[in-house]
Amino acid sequence: MTDISNRKDDHISLAMNAEHQGVAASGFDQICFEHNPLPELALNEISTQTQFLGVELSAPIIIGAMTGGCDNGDMINQHLAEAAEHCNIPMALGSQRAALELGLEQNVRRWAPNAIILSNLGATQLQQHGTDFAQRAVDAVRANALMIHLNPLQELIQPKGDRNWNKVLEAIQQCCEDLSVPVIVKEVGSGIGPSAAGKLIDAGIAWIEVAGRGGTSWASIEMARNESIRERQIAEPFLNWGMDTVALIPRLKQLDNNLKLIGSGGVRHGLDIARCIRLGAQMTALAQPFLEPALQSTEAVVEKISILSEQLRWAMFLTGSQNLDRLTVAPLITS
Ligand SMILES: Cc1cc2nc3c(=O)[nH]c(=O)nc-3n(C[C@H](O)[C@H](O)[C@H](O)COP(=O)(O)O)c2cc1C
Questions:
Q1: Residue with CA nearest ligand 1 atom 30
Q2: Cα of 335 from ligand 1 centre, angstroms
Q3: Pocket around ligand 1 at a 6 A CB cut-off
Q4: 268: CA distance to ligand 1 center in Å?
Q5: Which residue has the CA at smallest separation from atom 9 of ligand 1?
Q6: Which numbered atom of ligand 1 lies nearest the CA of 11?
Q7: 171 neighbors 130 (Cβ within 8 angstroms)
Q8: Is the pLDDT confidence value at 71 over 80?
Q9: Which residue is closest in CA terms to ligand 1's atom 1?
């Protein structure tokens, strides 16, 4: 096993541990819909359908990026991919760096021939290896788009993490110009704020996945992996670093009303999905909530998606919203 696949195994087992979840409050519970005791709708008339990258989906839910599929990740990805195909929702791959560097077969299209598949690389891989590397990631899985993850805090705390972030924006811009598919940029739990979003929009990105604070804490996970007392001491004040998903979505929307947004980071159920849509996101992504079902079976992932969709439908019913467009204007209560 390589260093990268060992690291991925650590990440998967630590992400299952509640200690590394919700280290900072996500703020989702502060977003309260006005209850509508007169929905004037039947539950089965409600549609959660939406479009993403030109494709009709059953719900605005993306299976968030977790593994590129090496070693144990292959079984996880099989369950996630088969469920994405069955439920007609997109699946984001985790970093394909190891698979590309080791020349491993990437099997996701065997399990999800038609689903939207999103490739994934770290921004520093792009900075180091350029757009050709990204194109290889996309071609290997016939991806519909590339996700580039920004994770500077994680890299700082991670033993031997990438600490040179010069010219990352330039590499993203080049990638937007040359890649054969749209580029989505995401964080991993510290959020993308208006200043960075403005630069990314100018660079030509198609979508931003917010990935704000309050869900999986990569600072906490990397601190648990870091054996250096000195480095853990330095990292300690940054455990809560970052910006909340629910605060970021409206701010990014304000920055550019046409910006396509994926709400993520601490989304834990269908009511949180409804909250993201109400705040201005068109799509949502959940990573950690899919991990446990993905370790079990395809059926367990399908069941998870079905529960999330039904929770979203209930939130739509209780706000009298027949479709997602109506949900975007459902009244909120401010306390
Ligand atoms: C086990 C695990 C592995 C992850 N690996 C990646 C990755 O390779 N690439 C990436 O962009 N994000 C990765 N993430 C981050 C998620 O995609 C997501 O942005 C973050 O966990 C916040 O969402 P959550 O609170 O729903 O987990 C990973 C998350 C988990 C739980």
A1: 66
A2: 32
A3: 11-12, 15, 64-66, 94-95, 120, 149, 186, 188-189, 211, 215-216, 264-267, 286-288, 291
A4: 13
A5: 94
A6: 1
A7: yes
A8: no
A9: 12
List, for residues 255-303, the tens digit of each pLDDT value.
999 999 999 999 999 999 999 999 999 999 999 999 999 999 999 999 9
Task: Note the pLDDT of residue 300.
Answer: 98
Whole-number pLDDT of residue 102: 92
pTM score > 0.90 for this model?
Answer: yes
What is the spatial distance between Cα 44 and Cα 309, in angstroms, rounded to a whole number? Answer: 12
Q: How far apart (Å, rounded) are the C-alpha atoms in residues 68 and 8?
A: 9
Helix (H) or strand (E) holding 51, with range, is strand 50-52
For strands 332-333 and 32-33, give the pairing. antiparallel
Q: Which residue carries 């459902």 as its tokens?
A: 330
CA distance 68 to 99: 7
Q: Whose CA is nearest to atom 2 of ligand 1?
A: 66
CA 3 to chain centre: 24
Q: Whose CA is nearest to atom 20 of ligand 1?
A: 188
| Amino acid at position 232, single letter | R
Q: Which residues pair with 92 in a beta bridge?
A: 118
**Which of the four pLDDT bands, split at 50, 70 and 90, describes residue 335?**
low
CA-CA-CA-CA torsion sign (95, 98, 100, 106): negative
Residue 32 CA to ligand 1 centre (angstroms): 26
243 vs 177: CA distance, rounded Å: 29
Q: Is the Cβ–Cβ distance between 274 and 316 less than 8 Å?
A: yes
CB 117 within 8 A of CB 83: no
Ligand 1 atom closest to Cα of residue 188: 19
Ordered structural domains, the chain, with CATH: 3-333 (3.20.20.70)
C-alpha 299 to ligand 1 mean position (Å): 22
